[in-house]
Here is the input.
Amino acid sequence: MADERSRQMSAFKWGIVLVSLGLAFGLIDVLNLDSNAPGTWGLLFGFAGAGMLGFHVLSKR
Here is the structure.
């Protein structure tokens, strides 16, 4: 039973991270950023980190 819960939480975590990365890619497209621009990488890493933090907050509920 604990193993099932662990798999569910892992899927939940990666779902949040992937959705946040999708939002980052959408924002990059809207802002017409170059793929090699530092701001582009900052958005990707920032949104991925925010997704992880969001998972942490939601999983503690």
About this structure: Residues 2-30 form the longest helix (29 residues). Residues 29 and 55 are 25 Å apart (CA to CA). The two ends are 19 Å apart (CA to CA).
